From TrEMBL:
This is Aldehyde dehydrogenase. It holds the Pfam family Aldedh. Keywords: Oxidoreductase. Residues 25-490 form the Aldehyde dehydrogenase domain.
Length: 495
């Protein structure tokens, strides 16, 4: 965000993407491929393998064999940690290639990726590499009988299928893969069909770092068939999922027959509350970037803005001015603040929400239209609706795009009531100079993350996840290891 302009990297045609199974790159068993499209140019970047059900079977079998072989699952923790540190270093070394892939595939500004996403991703491998050194330790416990002891031991779950969404594809893969590998699991990763390009480069990094063959497998293809096959497979122990609430619910249902472990990182409709005593310059910046960073394709976007009445008109005016001045453009251009939406399907969906807002009682104060840059691209203007109520469709649904309804309120009680009046509970923000009030309200808002006088802060150490329909389980932080391990109690008679 807000970087000094530097040189503009050039697009390049990438080699077609294959599947990684048992340490070898190969085509889909029937040779099928699908194009992945650059939303800025609307041209095909490259073809990517479309895995068959037979490929899913091979990938799971490979992960299972590798798990049972023990070259990873029983490897000494320090050796595992060293390899994870090597993954981190290789990610940093290849950062520009990853940034190019994410900019071309997802429309994320290249500089944002280098400044924010890549340090987070390599940081995840460093954190979990460190945790691998001791987090699997157990305990030696007394019982009622003086001659018996319980030895507790933490073990990996087995085969983890990681199913990831189209937004922040690398970060949301690393947040699963780093703890899963640290704990000794083996993995089959299925990235989103729209943005598979960084997954291919990550799989190569993992191979190059020395993770044994079969421990990490990558299959690309459609969620409804390929993803579903992983969810139902009896040899998969856990589904680590990030995506929409509707697909998450499906996965829980379909995984129930084989009693899958699941973590669910799902949708959000996060309230950002600005009180009249806030530092207005900072609060308006937090509100602007809270919704418009990565063109609103962020699960924790501040997608409902609640503003206290005494400052309401001023905040609306300032946000509209910022939105109207935002620089839309090629994500590779260092001057760009907002790129295109990631795919035509997302573009069409968000457009419908913009129309729904226009037809509602809310007042359009900025944006509201699509844009072409150099005659092409899936751009939607940063769009602000003032005088919204929390009952409107644009205030209730997760739009997942650059659309912000602003809702006025009076006082703490009304702010908390509106903030919590949503099925979701992923994130929230409180902008005020009164820290006591901020901490009191943070306790009362049902959300997995609460930002005070800021937005979009992340660190590998901070547990991340949802309340309510935004999911369960935590990624990042030492807490994440809980959902990739299980405890065993070994009873010993020492008489
Ligand atoms: P999505 O449509 O739910 O897809 C997510 C993943 O699930 C994709 O890989 C998809 O494959 C796969 N999938 C689809 N149907 C499946 C099925 N029946 N069985 C197994 N897998 C299936 O989500 P998205 O549109 O990519 O991502 C946006 C959503 O993710 C938003 O709701 C956003 O809030 C949420 N999100 C949450 C977080 C968080 O941390 N809480 C972070 C980022 C995003 P295909 O791509 O092939 O369809």
């Amino acid at each position: 965000m807000n970087q000094e302009p530097t040189r503009m990297p050039q697009r390049k045609r990438l080699a077609s993407g294959q599947l990684l199974i048992d340490g070898k790159w190969r085509n889909a068993s029937d040779g099928a491929t699908v194009p992945t499209v650059d939303p800025t140019t609307e041209e095909t970047i490259t073809e990517v393998a479309k895995a068959t059900l037979e490929d899913a079977e091979s990938a799971v079998a490979s992960a299972r064999r590798a798990f049972e072989a023990g070259d990873w699952s029983r490897l000494h923790h320090e050796a595992r940690a060293k390899i994870l540190f090597r993954v981190a270093d290789l990610l940093d070394e290849r950062a520009e290639d990853f940034a190019l892939r994410e900019a071309m595939d997802m429309g994320m500004p290249y500089r944002d990726f280098l400044d924010v996403i890549m340090p987070h991703c390599s940081g995840l491998f460093r954190l979990f590499g460190g945790l691998a050194m001791h987090a699997m330790d157990g305990a030696y416990r007394a019982t009622y009988e003086p001659h018996t002891r319980i030895l507790t031991r933490r073990e990996p779950l087995g085969v983890v299928a990681a199913i990831t969404p189209f937004n922040f594809p690398l970060a949301l893969t690393c947040s699963k893969v780093a703890p899963a590998l640290a704990a000794g699991n083996t993995i089959v990763h299925k990235p989103a069909s729209d943005t598979p390009l960084t997954a291919l480069a990550l799989a190569q990094v993992i191979l190059d770092a020395g993770v044994p063959d079969g421990v990490y497998n990558l299959v690309t293809g459609p969620g409804g068939t390929l993803g579903d096959a992983l969810v139902r497979h009896p040899l998969v122990d856990k589904i680590a999922f990030t995506g929409s609430t509707a697909v998450g619910q499906n996965i829980i249902r379909n995984g129930a027959a084989t009693l899958k472990h699941t973590t669910m990182e799902l949708g959000g409709k996060s309230p950002n509350i600005i009180f009249a005593d806030a530092d207005l310059d900072a609060a308006v910046q937090a509100a602007f970037w809270g919704i418009f960073w990565n063109k609103g394709e962020v699960c924790v976007a501040g997608s409902r803005l609640l503003v206290e009445r005494p400052i309401y008109d001023e905040v609306v005016e300032r946000l509209a001015a910022l939105a109207n001045a935002a620089v839309l453009g090629d994500p590779l251009d260092p001057r760009t603040q907002m790129g295109p939406l990631a795919s035509k399907a997302e573009f069409d969906k968000v457009r419908q929400y913009v129309e729904s807002g226009k037809a509602s009682s809310a007042r359009l104060v900025a944006g509201g239209d699509v844009r072409k840059i150099d005659g092409r691209g899936l751009f939607i203007e940063p769009t602000v609706f003032a005088d919204a109520t929390n009952e409107l469709k644009i205030s209730r649904d997760e739009i997942f795009g650059p659309v912000l309804p602003i809702i006025p309120f009076d006082g703490d009680e009304e702010a908390v009531r509106i903030a919590n009046d949503t099925p979701y509970g992923l994130a929230a923000g409180i902008q005020t100079r009164d820290l006591s009030r901020a901490l009191r309200l943070a306790d009362r808002i049902a959300a997995g993350t609460v930002w005070i006088n800021t937005w979009h802060k992340y660190h590998p150490n901070g547990p991340f996840g949802g309340y309510k329909m935004s999911g369960y389980g935590r990624e990042q932080g030492a807490e994440a290891l809980e959902s990739y391990t299980q405890y065993k109690s070994i009873w010993a008679n020492i008489a």
